[in-house]
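Bug report (template v2)

What were you trying to do?
Predict the complex of my protein with fe (ii) ion.

What happened?
Run completed; filing so the output is reviewed.

Input:
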Amino acid sequence: MGRLKDLRKYVNAKLNKMEDEDKRLGAVNHLYGVSLAAVMIAEKRGLDPEIAAMAAMLHDLYAYKSGSYDDHAQKGAELARKILVKLELTSEEETDIICSAIAHHDDKYSVDGPMDELLKDADVIHHCLNDVSKPVKDKEKARFESLCREFGMEGPK
Ligand SMILES: [Fe+2]
Ligand SMILES: [Fe+2]
């Protein structure tokens, strides 16, 4: 079994413990949606698509488990490290890359490393394209416009 599949098995088991069905489905939709967007961006930018997908699968897990978005990026990175060390799916370097991306994913205004930027962008793509009838959030506008240029999409009207 591939390591992404192994990680998804673990994440699915955690998500299945969420009692509220709508929240659970929302969490599954978001993590898998960001994961797909992350792979597309990785392929476009020449980054590792498997690491991108793994970072995406873990990026908001802390918030879903705890029910709180307070400091969820930093706490999410700590949780991701525990999970990755336990599952032994990644090298130390890969674990650091994934945890850095998760720690930075809520800093949408700043520019960080390539995998950090990839995860922020994948998160923005899912926020903006999951329901195009919803307005793009102010803090995601510049990033979404730049993604539209990168992917040759018309973008927000
Ligand atoms: Fe988040
Ligand atoms: Fe997210």
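What did the reviewer find?
The helical segments are 3-15, 21-45, 49-58, 61-66, 72-87, 92-104, 114-129, 138-150. DSSP finds eight helices and no strands in the chain.
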